[in-house]
Amino acid sequence: MAADVTKVVDALKKRKFDAYYVATAKDAVAKALELIPAKSSVSWGGSVSIQQCGLLDAVKAGDYVLIDRDKANTPQEKADMMRKGLTADTFLTSFNAVSEDGILLNIDGNGNRVSAIAFGAKSVVAIVGINKLVPTEADLEKRALSVAAPLNAKRLGKATPEDICAIFVKTRMSMIPGRIKIILVGEELGY
């Protein structure tokens, strides 16, 4: 049975996240752009969701200062850009799983994405497809390990999902109310 998205949004808000529900990926991009101040610095982690919905293309075409690790010419330059991205004004991402009671989970390989979410960036804007909702906190890790990790490992050319499952971060509440903004989309996005 599908989750009642109104209850999920309310649960996220009770945990001091800003939370929104939109029907389509196109609506998600429009909402995300409303939340990102013009001329602010913007970075992102490896997220299929923000690519699929078109948010990265929209940000790249917008009036922002981009910290784009994919523009790096060397591994060291890429690592330096990833570190700089941790302190961006806005960090764009998704979550591997969200429980119906508003708990978030991400599994990361390098730690840049979870570091930016946990503390680094001034603002986090996450676009989360409806496919990432799970009933309970106990289901978060199961979904991340059985669905997201294998697909991401394949996408990244890794031998096994364990090769990208170095760091697990569960976010139960935003200590700075509204710092983490979650746009829940009524369509499937990402893994």
Task: Please tell me about this protein's structure.
The protein has 7 helices and 10 strands. By secondary structure, the protein is α/β, with parallel strands linked by helices. The strands form 2 sheets. It has a 6-stranded parallel beta sheet, sandwiched between helices. Strands 8-5-6-9 form a 4-stranded mixed beta sheet, with helices on both faces.
Q: Characterize the overall form.
A: globular
How many angstroms does the end-to-end distance come to? Answer: 19 Å
In terms of structural class, how would the helical and strand content be classed?
alpha/beta
For the report, how would you describe the main beta sheet? 6 strands, parallel
Q: In percent, how helical is the residue content?
A: 25-40%
- Order of strands in the sheet with the most strands? 1-10-7-4-2-3
**Gyration radius from CA atoms, angstroms:** 15 Å
Give the topology string: H per helix, E per strand: HEHEHHEHEEEHEEHEE
Strand content: 15-25%
Total helical elements: 7
Uncertain runs are: none
Mean pLDDT metric: 93
Please tally the β strands and state the result.
10
